[in-house]
Amino acid sequence: METVNKYIDEINENIETLPTRGPCSKYVLEGDDVDIKRGKVEMEWTDDVDSVRQMEGIACDLDSAGLKSIVDATAEVKGKATPYAITGSLPLVRQMQNAGFDIQITGYGLSSTYHADNEYASLSDMQDAFQILLRIISINDQY
Predict the structure, then answer these.
(1) Which positions ≥6 away from 85 have C-beta within 8 Å?
(2) Residue 106 burial (CB < 10 Å; 0-12/13-18/19+)?
C-alpha cells in the first residue's frame, strides 16, 4: 500500500507529464474561468494494512510434492490433468505459505460457473473430486 501511495504521489507531482489525447486534453488547466486548475489521482483504501495482508495473493510452488500429488491424482481419476492458474486470493493463504506450508489451491467444479449468479457443480465432478482427494492423501501418506 505504501508503494502504491508513493506512485500516486509521484504521478500527482508530475501530472503535467502524463500522456494526453491531444491539445484539448490536459491535466493542468489555465484561465480565470477554471475552478479546478490541476487534476490529481486519488485512491482510497477500504481497509487497513493488516486486513489487506490477509488477502494477499500467492504463487504456488510448481516443483512441490503437493502440486505433483494433485496432478498425479487428478490424472489417475480423470484421465488427464492440466494445471492452470486464475487470479484471486483467499484469506490467510499467503501467511500459511510464508510459514512453510506447501500451499496448493484446487477445485473440481465447473470454472465457467464459479461465482456466477447460478453457480453450480455436477454431482459426478464432486464424486471424482472425492476420489482425487483420497488419492492425494494416499500419495502423500508415503512421504
Answers:
(1) 60
(2) middle
